[in-house]
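Q: How would the structure tokens look for this protein?
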Amino acid sequence: MHFKKNHGGRSGFTLVELLVVIAIIGSLVALLLPAVQTARASARRMQCSSRMRQVGLALHNFADAHQGRFPEVFGHGFDDQDTWIYTLGPYLEDVDEMRICPDDPLGAERFEKKETSYVLNGYLAIVIDLDLGGGTSIRNIHGTKKNINKIKATSKTIAMFEAGPDVHNDHIHSYDWFSEGNINQDKVFNIVSGEVAVDRHNGTSNYLYLDGHVTSLSSDQISEWCNQPFNFAQPQR
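A: Here is the predicted structure in token form.
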């Protein structure tokens, strides 16, 4: 029997073999990386959805304790002691964790400023405006519903949206979106996408409905409703 000599007494990969192995590993990484990124993005979206559901549960518990009334929001400025975020605090396990979406690019900034990634539908908000005299007044806007018991179609009424880049408050001005001027000038979707992060999760966004369920809607669907026009923010019958 003859054995092939190993010159120099050493064994191992040749340079060509090593390059082939590196190329194979690189190809496998390139194939797996998108799947890993997709899985992580899906996990963040689900975490965001879960936090919205927790906020929705707290909203219901608050309403139950206050004869069906929704929490107050402020029309100007941001008072962390009176905004709905902290009004719901006793009904949330950890309000500081729940108020920030893990996919929100402004999440860190909003956390420091006591803001939120989730904004209350203006149609459901009891809006408080600070007047020049230091007092407060409640704005009565046509179409708003300040009590959950006044809304029959809770499963069709959006309670909260994911905050867009133009929002630094605790609610959005959804009651202004479909004004005659905005419709005539074809500005509805631009205004909506400024206040709502319509494509935060790979072209979609999470929406909390008043019955407590969370739905993911595409930005194309929101754009279609804006162009119809269909006021999807208004409490539905």
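The chain has a mean pLDDT of 84.

The helical segments are 15-65, 84-87, 95-98, 107-112, 174-177, 180-184, 188-195, 219-227.

Upvote if useful.
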